Amino acid sequence: MFDNIRRDLAAHRGDWGAQGFWALLVYRFGRWRYSVRPALLRKPLSVVYKLLYKAVQVVTGIELPCEVPVGRGFVIEHAGGIVISGFASFGDHCRIRNGVVVGLSHTDEPCAPAFGDHVDIGAGAKILGPIRIGNHVRIGANAVVLQDVPDHCTAVGVPAIIKPRGPGVPQQPAARRARQAV
């Protein structure tokens, strides 16, 4: 648990005040409490987790249940309006911004998206249903993604249109390319 918390803090650039870090701190505690034996000791920890989860949800607007498998380097960039289904899963080094919803497309079908590694999700995006988001994918702001997104692609629009970013090589943001050219 403490190694994950150290990595989460490093991913949030050492900012203890980052609300995304708070949500991940409570998330890591919630995951850790499942390992506590016997169950009699786990019960009070579950009560503490539920209180902390609700406090983070109210204060930050981030709903990240501890049932969601989250990889290393997960970053919640901006707080507010983030809802993640307990059926979703995230790979390593994913980044999520405010107003994002990751959830079910139908309530009678408990399947949510599965994200690969190095996924960047723009503000206000909605990713719904039993879909797979590949590695090194970017999802544009306010995109509504209802279909699988292959590796090294960008999803933009409503409904999202999938655009390849290159021949298997992830592109760098324009600002980084400009700095490297100098």
Computed CA radius of gyration, to the nearest angstrom = 17 Å
Which CATH class applies here?
A: Mainly Beta
DSSP summary, beta strand count: 13
Q: Give me the CATH fold name.
A: UDP N-Acetylglucosamine Acyltransferase, domain 1
Strand content: 15-25%
Number of domains: 1
The CATH architecture assignment turns out to be: 3 Solenoid
Low-pLDDT stretches are 174-182
Structural class: alpha/beta
Number of helices: 4
Q: What topology, given as strand order, has the largest sheet?
A: 2-4-7-10-12-13
Specify the overall morphology.
globular
**Termini separation:** 42 Å
Sketch the major β-sheet.
Answer: 6 strands, mixed
Query: Secondary-structure element order, as H and E?
Result: HHHEEEEEEEEEEEEEH
The pLDDT mean sits at 89
Task: Name the helicity range.
Answer: 25-40%
The CATH homologous superfamily name equals: Hexapeptide repeat proteins
